[in-house]
Amino acid sequence: MRSRRGTYLLGGLFLLGTNSCALLIPWLMKLAVEGLQFPLKAPHSPAYYALLIIAAALLQGTIRIFSRTTLLHAARRIEFQLREELYAKLLALDLPYFSRERTGDILSRFTNDLTNVRMLMGFGVLNVINTVIIYVAALFLMVRLSPSLTAFAIIPFPLMILIVKRLSASMFRRSKRAQEELARLSSHVEENVSAATVVRAYCREDAQIEEFREVNGRYLESNMGMARLRGWMIPVMASAGAFGTLIVLFLGGSRVIAGTLTLGDFVAFNGYLAMLIWPTIVMGWILNLMQRGAASMSRLNHVLDASGTVTDPAEPAPVERLRGEIEFRNLAFSYGEEPFLADISLAIRPGMKVGIAGPVGSGKSSLVRLIPRLYPVADGQIFLDGIDVNRIPLVTLRNAIGFVPQESFLFSRSIGDNIGYGKEGAGAGEIATAARLASLENDVHRFPDGYDTLVGERGVTLSGGQKQRAAIARALLKDPAILILDDPLSAVDARTEEEILGSLAGYYGDRTVLIVSHRLSALRECDLILVLEAGRVVEQGSHDDLLAMDGRYAATWREQQLRAEIETF
């Protein structure tokens, strides 16, 4: 709001103008009534005052348009700014944060929570300012007309404020709960839409519908609780105004009959009291809006206040370009309390080809993810070109690394755009070359639109192997000093694997390459192969050295070779 204080100030001035016109009308009514009562004493005719009332009403309506558009536009700008800050924050957060949060919950904060904050910053602020102006001005004018009558008229208001205060505290709790239930609902829908194939394949439609009904029921109940509270608030507000009006009609009417109050003053007083009724009623809605907005803002602050565990170094080392030398010094890593990787020490020279093998859950992917600092790593455990990885700026570090993860993610764009994502401003020739190296070019030419073919959400129109090869092409286009391939050939057959490995052999050059693979055939040309088990290196050496050891690697190699021979029959 501070960034838009000029706009809010202008909107407040417009509200002051529109309310000034509104407050003028009862006073003009007073003068008109007195003119009808005492035509000889009146300075102007009732028709004159009627014209002034029409002019004041028209001016009020005109200024009202500007007051609403000014304040509501400010709220839209705040929503826009918050959405940008949220998006930038999400991109700055690291993988540990996203492993804890649900996608549907994050999306709910971007939509429903932002809308609630916008409503608070727009309609909420507008009505708060409007209510303050109306109350202060109307009460001042009412006191001028009759101080004692004003005191009797506002008797119900303190009691109303106490009741509303108690209700609003409950409203905040219920509103926050409703937002959380909506987040669960969004997460449930997002998961089932993404897993539509699995749901249908296992005939789980009815079970998922029933689960959705339960989640939706909890969301409904939390909203119904808020509706019941709102149902109490508005009658309390309205009854306060109605009770005050009843007192004024009785006491004020008696005074008019007794001659201690003029009919014009009585009409004007009722006019100002009537102006207080709507702000009093709408106060309940404002309080509800404020509680919903406050609950939503607390959920947004959960994201905005989050801090990544992987951050840029406070004193970065002066690094222009990395050559690809990697060293692990007693590397240890854990996702929780139990160690996941331990006692890993290894020196990799620039240009070496290193293979990493091991059973599922042995820590292969975790090891290679630590090199680009996708997860936090302690100081003094990983060095690139002799520099602690934690002292290298993240942009420099990650620009030097081409990373192909296990799950190949493609954006809902064309094949060319997905490959070109690896290098900003990449030309069509560079994209085609990268696709050729990844053995994707022939597949692309079979599509009617070639590289302009849209792949659908998460690359749904491509096969698993095509998605993996597109991800490989994206990493190759980056021309990195270090290339990390985390089991990139799991979805292709043996022949395609040989073709891709053959193409990549000419690309490697002096790059440092780390290949994680369950298929040992993909690692046999590596200079060094690590065999991991339970987060530790249990064997290392070249393909021939490991076969000669006749250990875990050799046993796995024989098993895979036997399986390949059986499949040929």
TrEMBL record:
SUPFAM superfamilies: ABC transporter transmembrane region, P-loop containing nucleoside triphosphate hydrolases. It comes from Geomobilimonas luticola. This is ABC transporter ATP-binding protein/permease. The lineage of its organism: Bacteria, Pseudomonadati, Thermodesulfobacteriota, Desulfuromonadia, Geobacterales. SMART domains: AAA. Keywords: ATP-binding, Membrane, Nucleotide-binding, Transmembrane, Transmembrane helix. Pfam families: ABC_membrane, ABC_tran. It is found in: Cell membrane. PANTHER family: ABC TRANSPORTER (PTHR24221:SF579), ATP-BINDING CASSETTE SUB-FAMILY B (PTHR24221). It is a multi-pass membrane protein. The chain crosses the membrane at residues 7-28, 48-67, 119-143, 149-167, 232-252, 272-290. One of its GO terms (molecular function) is ATP binding. Residues 326-559 form the ABC transporter domain. Residues 9-292 form the ABC transmembrane type-1 domain.
